[in-house]
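User: Hey, my collaborator sent me this sequence without any context and asked if I could get a structure. I don't really work with proteins. Can you help?
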Amino acid sequence: MPSGRRSSKRPWSAENAELDLERIRGGRRTEDDGDGAWTVQAVPGSGTKTYRCPGCHQEIGPGTPHLVTWQADALLGAQAGLELRRHWHTGCWQHRDRRR
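Assistant: No problem. I've predicted the 3D structure and written it out in structure-token form, which is a compact way to encode the shape of the chain:
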């Protein structure tokens, strides 16, 4: 027997929420910079591995959210770029242009 109440989740007159394309792609995006095109993917953190950030040369510990990047327009092709991927602290990646 219906209760006569309408759902409060989203009224019929409300606009649809914008799609978060980065979330749909698994956090992957392409960035163009002075040193080429880069694929950048957000990672919630690895389970057991520790990585070394090429920006600050400090460790990225297990479970630490960070970015994985690789050159999208690598000279030897996309697979070669993927094989040379690096793990960066998010802040280090965002400020890497200061090192150049």
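In plain terms: The CA atoms of residues 47 and 95 lie 26 Å apart. You can pass these tokens on to your collaborator as they are.
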